[in-house]
Write a structure and sequence with these properties.
With 418 residues, this protein is α/β, with parallel strands linked by helices. It has 2 domains: 157 residues, Lyase, Ornithine Decarboxylase, Chain A, domain 1 (Beta Barrel), CATH 2.40.37; 180 residues, Alpha-Beta Barrel (TIM Barrel), CATH 3.20.20. It contains 12 helices and 21 strands. The strands form 3 sheets. Strands 4, 14, 15, 16, 17, 18, 19, 20 and 21 form a 9-stranded mixed sheet that branches. An 8-stranded parallel β-barrel has the order 5-6-7-8-9-11-12-13, surrounded by 5 helices. The chain starts with a strand and ends in an 11-residue tail after the last helix. Bound molecules: ligand LLP.
């Protein structure tokens, strides 16, 4: 469910016409709905309210400071994977005791920063990393709270690039080696074991892989408790899918219904790390058709947003629904919708059926609120685009469009070139 709907023949973001924002702020532009974001967060809160839990929003999906502040004010924690994300989470007012930190390559500086910030826990991905954290914690004279990220070897049945729980992936510690790793961790003087972490992939559209993975980690928690290692938190990662194109992912309440029976007998606090299912359908990318071009039997719609603004189609061949901002009754045609970047892989849609697009039309790329702006770049030296947050009948620019001068603001010239 989202708040980007036609009223008569015009697309609205909540109660603001998308056209108005595009005209006043310019295109391309990301637009987010406050209502949708909160509805999605609340769906998780309600679904899991019967069990102690923390919802740690995955910043990699969307780390705009206004959105983070909105989620923070409504009780969200954060799942971060870099010092930069930790900085943004703290700056947005997310309490440090609701922040978990994952990622296979945390640097010494990042570890020290997180320890000083007193985050809830590190989700540790290797024994080398565990030793590094122990060493840095010793220097800082603190104990580092940790969970080990275990890899439960479950097939999430999603795109291979975003599936992380299989044995061949670089993430986590194989579940069969978990007990051994936990017992090593329990002997490290500056490590405090708090929990178990797992994350099996993203855009998962069935409940089954979540249940299978949970059963494995609950069994592990019992085993560890039997060995005298006290597990207090079970962090089950993110990964719930959204509807991009006739997908029918489970709702948070369906997920909780399937998962909580395995949790209830356990005295474990649950951590959930949703990203896409909170932000994905809460955002669209508005772009303008610059030119129409016909080759032999192919029609291209060239728009002003490129793979540098939204890379998911190019990188994963991901499908994003694309609709006209102003509805029309033109004939349906099959076109490639492509960007201005000098790469053949720069497209938003291929062989797409859409009412004919003419020069100057505005199009809305749907489900672009997660992994849209956060994966954008300035490739081809294109300044990054603005982000707008809509609340009711008002809109707010929550990130300004970059200028050309931003492109080289950190460039320095050696003496011999001055
Ligand atoms: N927790 C961990 C440890 C993760 O690695 C991820 C995503 C999440 C939570 C959030 O997952 P979500 O709820 O958003 O599915 N760029 C790709 C997605 C990469 C996801 C990486 N990890 C895309 O655009 O589809």
């Amino acid at each position: 469910m989202h708040d980007f709907k036609y009223k008569k023949s015009e697309l609205f973001a909540e109660n603001v016409p998308a056209r108005k924002i595009a005209e006043e702020v310019g295109t391309p532009v990301y637009i987010y709905s406050r209502n949708t974001l909160l509805r999605h967060l609340n769906a998780y809160k309600n679904a899991f309210k019967k069990h102690p839990h923390i919802i740690c929003f995955a910043l990699k999906a969307n780390s705009n400071g206004a959105i983070l502040r909105l989620l923070a004010k409504n009780g969200a924690g954060a799942d971060v994977v870099s010092g930069g994300e930790l900085y943004l989470a703290l700056k947005a007012g997310i309490p440090s005791n609701k922040i978990v930190y994952a990622g296979v390559g945390k640097s010494a500086d990042e570890i020290a920063y997180a320890l000083k910030s007193k985050i809830l826990m590190f989700n540790v991905e290797s024994s080398d990393e565990l030793n590094a954290i122990n060493g840095i914690a010793k220097k800082l004279k603190v104990k580092a709270p940790i969970a080990l990220r275990v890899n439960p070897d479950i097939d999430p049945k999603t795109h291979p690039y975003i599936s992380t729980g299989l044995i061949e992936s670089k993430f986590g510690i194989p579940i069969k080696d978990a007990v051994e790793n936990y017992s090593v961790a329990s002997r490290l003087p500056n490590i405090e074991i708090l929990g178990i972490h797992k994350h099996i992939g993203s855009q998962i559209t069935e409940v089954r892989p979540f249940v299978d993975a949970l059963k494995k980690v609950v069994a592990l928690a019992k085993k560890l408790n039997d060995c005298g290692i006290n597990i207090r938190y079970l962090d089950i990662g993110g990964g719930l899918g959204i509807n991009y194109n006739n997908d029918s992912p489970p709702l948070p309440k369906e997920l909780s219904k399937a998962l909580l029976p395995f949790m209830n007998a356990q005295n474990l606090k649950l951590i959930i790390e949703p990203g896409r299912s909170i932000a994905g359908n809460a955002g669209v990318l508005i772009t303008k058709a610059l030119y129409i071009k016909r080759h032999a039997n192919k029609e291209f719609v060239i728009v002003d947003a490129g793979m540098n603004d939204l890379i998911r189609p190019s990188l994963y061949n991901a499908y994003h629904n694309i609709i006209h901002v102003m509805k029309n009754a033109r004939k349906k045609v099959t076109v490639d919708i492509v960007g201005p970047i000098c790469e053949s892989g720069d497209y938003l849609a291929k062989n797409r059926r859409i009412n004919r697009v003419i020069q100057g039309d505005m199009l809305s790329v749907m489900s672009a609120g997660a992994y849209g702006f956060t994966m954008s770049s300035t490739y081809n030296s294109r300044p990054r685009i603005p982000e707008v947050l809509v609340k009711g009948n008002k809109y707010y620019v929550v990130r300004e469009r970059e200028e050309y001068s931003d492109l080289d603001s950190r460039v320095t010239l050696p003496d011999f070139l001055k």
